[in-house]
Each structure stands twice: as C-alpha cells, then as structure tokens.
Amino acid sequence: QAFFCLLLCVPWGSSCPPSCQCTEWAGAKAVLCSSRHLEEIPKDIPKDAVFLKLDANSITRIPSNAFRHLSHLEELDLSRNAIEKIDRAAFKGVAAGLRTLDLSSNRIRSIPKEALLALNAKLRLANNPWHCECALQEVLWEARLDPDSVQDITCHTAPREEYVGKPLLQVLDAGVNFCSVRQRTTDIAMFITMFGWFTMVIVYVICYVRHNREDTCKHVDYLKSLPSTQGHAE
C-alpha cells in the first residue's frame, strides 16, 4: 500500500482510463482504479501497465481475454469486489508474466481450474464462499497459493455438512479426497446405467421367447385341427 501511495506522487503523461489514475515509479507503469464504483474491467487500460489495482469495486465477472493486451502485467489486484464468475480464458495472455493475483474477498463459489493452473502467479483466494469440490482441491494442490492466506480458504458449502465452515486445507489433511468422491459417484452412475441396459436386454429376451412359444403353440393347435391325410384316404 505504501508503494502505491508513492506512485500517486508521480504523474504519468500517457493516456489513462478516465475512472483510474495512472502513475510511474522507477520505470514501472501502474494503473490505480481502486474504489471507483466500477462494474466491469476498463477496456482502455494502457498496454504497458505493470501494476493494476481494481480492488474495492463492484466487478461481478472476469470474461475471457480480459487482460490479454497487457503483456507486461506483473501484479493484478481484484480483491474486495463482487466477482462470482471467472471464465476459463480470463487470464489468457498474462499467464507467463503475472507474479501476483489477488482474488480474495469476492463472491467466488467455484472456478475453472484451467483459469488458474496455467498461471505462475502467487494466488490469494481467501474469504470467498467456496464450494469445496474436486476442482478447488486441484487448484489447492497445483497452483502457487500465498501461504499466508491458505488457511482462509474455507468451505462455505460441501458435499457433507461436517466440512462446512472448515478450512479446505484442514479437511484435506484429514484424508478427505473430493476427487475420489466424484469418481466414485461417476462409477456408481455408470454401474446403474449398465444394469439398466442389462435388465432391458433380459426383459426383451424373455418377451421374445414367450412370444415365439405362443406362436408355436398356436401353430401346433392349428395343425391338430386340420383333417388328417389318412381320414381323407378312407
């Protein structure tokens, strides 16, 4: 915060979004859009921005390619918004260079793992109403999370009531594996489907045999009802 306060003292002569303030410090371009009542990400952010603060606004969604033109971006702060949806390609174009991504204190319940696992940035995901599931577990295992905020990634909802309100890391340390639960559910669904098809085949075979048996009995009764050849000869 002190760093960004210093940036405010240095004017930036290039173009800047009207709702933001742009500054420069030691050759680094910073775009400061904190607490500007923004409902979406500004589209005219300078391409050479290195720091971008969009915190404390009313942004609800991060669409695909939202920052693709910001190839120099290193730090992105989206904390304290109302973000509920993050598209799979939300951070496409900045994945390689981004060092810090703050998504804390939003309304995020779930997030496509593809949106985060491609990032090398240190992630802050604390204080969101997370639904604890396999995708979130994979993010926790594979992404670079800020160690100071990991304990604040809490299960707001979960497959079992006993996990609600607990830090996800604590639940996983207890031996819970949300991905295996999903796999087991899938296996059960496949078993039920296969059993249903097998039952249908058995029923069809039984009906087919009964139908043929009835036709055979009718044919035999018909033959019995015909006058015999010997009777005609006499």
Which CATH C-level class of the largest domain is it?
A: Alpha Beta
Helix content: 25-40%
Give the overall average pLDDT.
83
Structural class: alpha/beta
Elements, N to C (H/E): HEEEEEEEHEEHEHHH
Quickly give the CATH architecture of the largest domain.
Alpha-Beta Horseshoe
3D architecture notes:
Belongs to the LRRC3 family. This is Leucine-rich repeat-containing protein 3. Its main location: membrane. InterPro entries: Leu-rich_rpt, Leu-rich_rpt_typical-subtyp, LRR_dom_sf, LRR_TM_domain-containing, LRRNT. The protein is of the alpha/beta class and 234 residues long. It has two domains: 21-176, Leucine-rich repeat, LRR (right-handed beta-alpha superhelix), CATH 3.80.10.10; 187-217. Helix content is 34%, strand content 13%. The protein contains six helices and ten strands. It has a six-stranded mixed β-sheet. The protein has a two-stranded parallel sheet with strand order 4-6. Helix 3 runs antiparallel to helix 5.
Q: Which structural traits does this protein have?
A:
234 residues; 13% strand; repeat; two-stranded parallel sheet; disordered N terminus; 6 helices; membrane; 34% helix; alpha/beta; Leucine-rich repeat, LRR (right-handed beta-alpha superhelix); six-stranded mixed β-sheet; 10 strands; 2 domains
